[in-house]
């Protein structure tokens, strides 16, 4: 029983990163009604960019690497926006989808070539800290992951619901034409959405690297799939839904792993997705 | 010369993969599951020739039927899921199938060795062609027999009422329903045909490469499947063929020494193509 | 032929159609008018089966339509046109009509054996007739997207006719037409009636409604507020109030 609880808690803490990835997918969908298939790859890419700091400054502290991951993600987000969304006409959703898939491959391969296919070590913080409560322990680094993720999510929610930019974003997602008529520049809102989700993705990638200990291009496809699963379970376009779903997927994933081992774990996560698709295609908070 | 035959084999098999996505795309469904049906076809045909000693043709028939049956089963729940959700659902299904094969062991002893799929190691020694004296040229012709047949069938559909109905559904489901089109029948049938074509393609793939494993049927392959008809344009089957040739021949031929940069260039090429020609190489029907 | 009994359709708090009783007899041309938002289009959509009733019943030729999906209703003989034309723009005129041949007779014609026994010729002849009737014969291979607006309207109507309807619901077919075009439309509607098609005309353009219908029902806020001949309806003070507001 205690094992189970431990696993659930660890999963919840790690799940915060999935929540961030899910938010990224769902926010772009909400604003542009398009899926940015590149997102998870760009997030990992951002994390890699964070590692560049270590090249420049050999003993750089972990938090600096994370910060650069954060910023790197934002920059990549803007690049993805330009390459895949800015120029393609609205009437070609297939073209946008394809270009984001192409971009996903491109980023993946660039990472592989830049790192010669070898995984890289990622710095962690508080990985030697363990809070104990009897036989129950909370990993310090996971707590940090959770804490930073929550801070970012809170920041995003404040941005969305308490600032003018957030208001503009929500307006565009509901009625793009009317929003334009009110003087909102759609291209700008879209670009900013990409930068913001890129920032979130970058920090998520860095946190994943930190808690796993290494970063590898092999992470991108599974992360894409998990991010999409979180998005679907949370409901497309639903940011709070993505948060809850991310934590849920993190927890379930760990439980499945405890129960059936690593190789079958992902199969069960997939089944979880199908259960939702069949019974609640609108996501957690939908009525049907 | 063998190199060119090999490339022609690859193009032929990928054309089948692309065509399986083409017919589904006509109905407006973006399916990332075609690689899964391809995988099912591959493992089925492989197991039938290697483990059960079947002749290649009935083995391909079986893989086509199994691909079609799975696709039909997927087609029904797919109806409940619209637009981008379908992309995600089919992507997840594809991953699920891949993970299934990652965990799939079925080996029997043949003489001193064991043959058959072995989980993560994959399925090796699918040697029907070499064991029966087929040359590279023979295999190429055989593959193209099926690729051309599939093209002919889809070309014929395009000129028939069924083709017009498929495209009507793809364009406006509400209007199609309102003139009496049974959406379920149309969408599921398209998915089923796509599954049949992918099944054959997979069976051929397994035999010409002689070794398949779960990673041969990943998201990348699923992407190739829909990339071909999207990049080639949905106005006719030749668009898909052109896209396959363009992508494979250009990437392979142009960069023989840089073989492992292929995927990177594929990605860049797609991004570029979609920005320059959002409606595909062949574009829309002329307005 | 068609009867709506206390039909209601609520969207959350909005009562688009509220306890509507509406009858159409075979061979009639009935008008359905009312200010914007009165529920006319919703009523059409309910009969066509686009969404289910919240309460009440719709009966067509003694058959309750409740569980039937749109394409099944079509096979019973209910066809409709769309207010904002919904043609298959990437298909040709001919193909638009071809796709619409889903009536039981046409399906039988496509049956395995029937096909070889002149089924195909029948199909071609029927489509050619429809094209003649709609004045689109010269444009049969043109993409629907390339047609002029008036031609698109005619194709929208022709496509509904290709389904061999017994009841035809026309949703604002005259929008944006000039007097001459309205006259042509009027004639076409009368011709359709003489072919045995019952017609429900939802319309704002009074010139058409008053000129072609025998009976008109007036809706406001989802309910029927008046019914009668065109003359009666025009004189009704409630109708005036609904359209013009106030006393």
Compact summary:
Chain B has 287 residues and is mainly alpha-helical. Chain B has 12 helices and 2 strands; from the N terminus they run ααααββαααααααα. Chain B has one domain (2-218).
Describe the protein in words:
The complex is a heterotrimer of chains A (288), B (287) and C (247). Chain A has eleven helices and four strands; from the N terminus they run H-H-H-H-E-E-E-H-H-H-H-E-H-H-H. Chain A has 288 residues and is mainly α. Chain A has a single domain (2-279), classed as Orthogonal Bundle (ABC transporter involved in vitamin B12 uptake, BtuC). In chain A, the strands form two sheets. Chain A has a two-stranded antiparallel ribbon. In chain A, strand 2 and strand 3 (136-139) form a beta hairpin. The radius of gyration of chain B is 19 Å and the shape is globular. Chain B has helices at residues 2-26, 34-50, 56-78, 83-102, 128-131, 136-159, 161-171, 173-178, 183-209, 219-232, 237-254, 262-276, and strands at residues 108-110, 113-115. The longest helix of chain B is centred in the last third of the chain and has 27 residues, at 183-209. With 287 residues, chain B is mostly helical. Helices cover 71% and strands 2% of the residues of chain B. Chain C is α/β, with parallel strands linked by helices and 247 residues long. In chain C, the strands form two sheets. Chain C has a six-stranded mixed β-sheet with strand order 6-7-8-3-9-10, with helices on both faces. In chain C, helix 5 crosses helix 6. Chains in contact: A-B, B-C. The A-B interface holds A 29, 34-35, 83-84, 87-89, 92, 94-99, 101-110, 113, 221, 224-225, 228-229, 231-232, 236, 263-264, 266-267, 270-271, 273-274, 277-278, 281 and B 25, 30, 77, 80-81, 84-85, 87-89, 91-93, 95-96, 99-100, 102-103, 120, 218-220, 223, 226-227, 230-231, 261, 263-264, 266-271, 273-275, 278-279.
């Amino acid at each position: 029983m205690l094992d189970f609880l431990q696993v659930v808690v660890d999963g919840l803490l790690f799940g915060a990163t999935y929540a961030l990835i899910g938010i990224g997918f769902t926010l772009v969908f909400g604003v542009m009604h398009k899926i940015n298939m590149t997102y998870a790859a760009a997030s990992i890419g951002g994390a890699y960019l964070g590692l560049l700091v270590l090249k420049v400054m050999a003993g750089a502290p972990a938090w600096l690497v994370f910060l650069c991951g954060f910023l790197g993600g934002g920059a990549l987000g803007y690049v993805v926006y330009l390459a895949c969304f800015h120029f393609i006409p609205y009437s070609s959703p297939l073209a946008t989808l394809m270009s984001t898939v192409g971009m996903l491959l491109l980023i993946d391969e660039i990472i592989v070539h830049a790192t010669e296919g070898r995984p890289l070590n990622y710095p962690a913080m508080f990985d030697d800290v363990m809070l104990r409560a009897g036989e129950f322990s909370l990993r310090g680094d996971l707590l940090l992951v959770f804490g930073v993720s929550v801070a970012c999510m809170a920041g995003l929610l404040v941005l969305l619901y308490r600032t003018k930019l957030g208001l503009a974003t929500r307006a565009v997602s509901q009625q793009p034409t009317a929003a334009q008529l009110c003087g909102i520049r759609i291209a700008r809102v879209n670009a900013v959405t990409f930068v913001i989700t890129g920032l979130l993705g970058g920090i998520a990638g860095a946190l994943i690297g930190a808690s796993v200990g290494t970063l590898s291009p092999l992470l991108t496809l599974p992360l894409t799939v998990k991010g999409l699963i979180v998005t679907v379970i949370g409901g497309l376009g639903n940011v709070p839904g993505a948060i809850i779903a991310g934590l849920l997927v993190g927890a379930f994933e760990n439980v499945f792993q405890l129960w059936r081992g690593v190789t079958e774990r992902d199969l069960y996560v997939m089944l979880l997705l199908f259960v939702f698709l069949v019974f609640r295609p609108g996501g957690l908070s939908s009525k049907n | 010369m063998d190199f060119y035959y090999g490339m022609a084999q690859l193009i032929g098999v990928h054309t089948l993969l692309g065509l399986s996505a083409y017919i589904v795309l006509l109905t407006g469904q973006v399916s990332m599951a075609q690689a899964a049906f391809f995988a099912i076809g591959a493992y089925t045909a492989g197991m039938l020739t290697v483990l059960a000693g079947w002749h290649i043709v009935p083995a391909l028939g079986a893989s086509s039927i199994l691909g079609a049956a799975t696709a039909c089963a997927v087609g029904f729940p797919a109806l409940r899921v619209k637009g981008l959700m379908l992309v995600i659902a089919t992507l997840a299904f594809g991953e699920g199938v891949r993970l299934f094969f990652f965990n799939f062991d079925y080996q029997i002893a043949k003489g001193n060795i064991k043959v058959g799929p072995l989980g993560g190691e994959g399925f090796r020694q699918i040697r029907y062609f070499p064991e029966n004296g087929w040359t590279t040229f023979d295999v190429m012709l055989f593959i193209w027999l099926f690729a051309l047949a599939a093209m002919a069938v889809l070309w014929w559909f395009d000129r028939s009422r069924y083709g017009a109905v498929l495209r009507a559904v793809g364009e406006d489901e509400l209007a199609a329903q309102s003139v009496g089109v049974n959406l379920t029948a149309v969408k599921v049938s398209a998915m089923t045909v796509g599954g049949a074509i992918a099944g054959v393609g997979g069976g051929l793939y397994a035999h010409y490469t002689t070794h398949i494993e779960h990673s041969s049927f990943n998201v990348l392959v699923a992407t190739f499947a829909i990339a071909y008809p999207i990049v080639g344009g949905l106005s006719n089957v030749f668009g898909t063929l052109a896209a396959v040739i363009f992508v494979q021949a250009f990437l392979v031929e142009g960069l023989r020494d840089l073989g492992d940069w292929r995927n990177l260039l594929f990605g860049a090429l797609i991004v570029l193509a979609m920005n320059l020609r959002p409606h595909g190489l062949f574009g829309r029907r002329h307005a | 032929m068609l009867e709506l009994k206390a039909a209601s359709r609520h969207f959350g708090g909005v009562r688009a159609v509220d306890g509507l009783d509406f009858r159409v007899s075979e061979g009639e041309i009935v008008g359905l008018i009312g200010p914007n938002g009165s529920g006319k289009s919703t009523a059409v959509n309910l009969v066509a089966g686009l969404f289910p009733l919240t309460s009440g019943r719709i009966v067509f030729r003694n058959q309750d339509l409740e569980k039937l999906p749109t394409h099944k209703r079509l096979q019973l003989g209910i066809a409709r046109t769309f207010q904002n034309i919904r043609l298959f723009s990437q298909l040709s005129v001919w193909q638009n009509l071809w796709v619409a041949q889903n009536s039981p007779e046409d399906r039988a014609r496509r049956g395995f054996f029937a096909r070889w026994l002149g089924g195909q010729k029948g199909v071609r002849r029927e489509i050619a007739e429809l094209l003649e009737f709609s004045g689109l014969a010269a444009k049969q291979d043109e993409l629907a997207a390339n047609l002029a607006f008036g031609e698109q309207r005619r194709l929208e109507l022709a496509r509904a006719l290709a389904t061999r309807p017994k009841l035809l619901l026309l949703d604002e077919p005259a929008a944006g037409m000039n007097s001459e075009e309205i006259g042509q439309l009027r004639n076409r509607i009368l011709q359709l009636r003489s072919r045995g098609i019952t017609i429900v005309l939802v319309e704002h353009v009074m010139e058409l409604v008053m000129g072609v219908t025998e009976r008109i029902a007036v809706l406001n806020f989802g309910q029927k507020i008046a019914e009668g001949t065109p003359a009666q309806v025009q004189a009704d003070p409630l109708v005036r109030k609904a359209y013009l507001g106030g006393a």
